[in-house]
Amino acid sequence: MNCFLDCFYNICFMKIYALFFYGLVSSSIYGQEKKKDWEFAQNQPAFGELYETTINQGYLRGRVVRAWLPEGYFSAKKAFETVYFHDGQMLFDSTQTWNHQSWDLPNAAQRYLSQHQCVFIGIDSHPKNRYAEFFPAPIYPNLPLAVQLSLRDSLWYGLPLFDAYANALINDVFPLVENSWNVKRGGDHRTMVGASMGAIVALTLLLEHPTELAKVACLSIHLPLIDVWQYRDRFRDPIATAFNQFVVENSFRVEHKTMYIDRGDQSLDKGYATYFPQFEAALKKFSNRNQVAVKLIRNSGHSEKDWSRRIGKILAKLMK
Description:
By secondary structure, this protein is of the alpha/beta class. Helices cover 42% and strands 16% of the residues. The protein is built from 11 helices and 9 strands. The protein has a 9-stranded mixed beta sheet. α2 links the parallel β4 and β5. 35% of the residues are buried.
């Protein structure tokens, strides 16, 4: 009887050990397969390493996501914070951008982040759908019908796409990054950065999904929310009113967050001055429960070169 029990226990132990070993091997193989999804970028920055992958499912299918890893990443014992950027194709390589400019992000941030290393993630925007994805969709029903129809038919070529874009970031991009790289998981460790309309979508995502982000940096925030060359001052008042109301109404949902917002005083940024008094008044609803900084950057404007000069100091303060 004892011999039978001993054999039984040995067989059970061997099965459990085999299952455990299989789990380890499978996990290792899976992890290797996930890394293979990321390719070493052809043009590498001066600092760190740049990888790329293409989303193969869902709303963002076909969209490129870029991951920049700081020097020392592969020898680090601790997980890294993540900083997500919209318009990812404009961050690293000026030879591949439409205006031959880039943020030159690793070089711009390197000397400021030497003590606070993090992984940068850039999500490419869609040229045709950029306004539709970045526009704060919750304000759309509150706009006059004439404004709704004009934006739908002349600017977006359809209804706003913010919800689809935001859900894809939350359900596809964030898990992809956190399952692929040695980064801390969850919204408490995510910062999001955007410029112009990218600043609008970063702030809107924080307001609509506050648990998904801890900090946002909104450079040259495009408070007209539409193509000013196409519309000039048309619809300025109803859109600005609806957006500021949206900011106020969602203030109660946001606590213990950090928000950095700026504008320059040159080029397109100069025209934002008329929007800022009402916008800053709306932001005051956040001031008691969050850290909010609104800055005017002198002698700076609305271009990748301007944002490159600004981003290092901004990240140094955000990533303390």
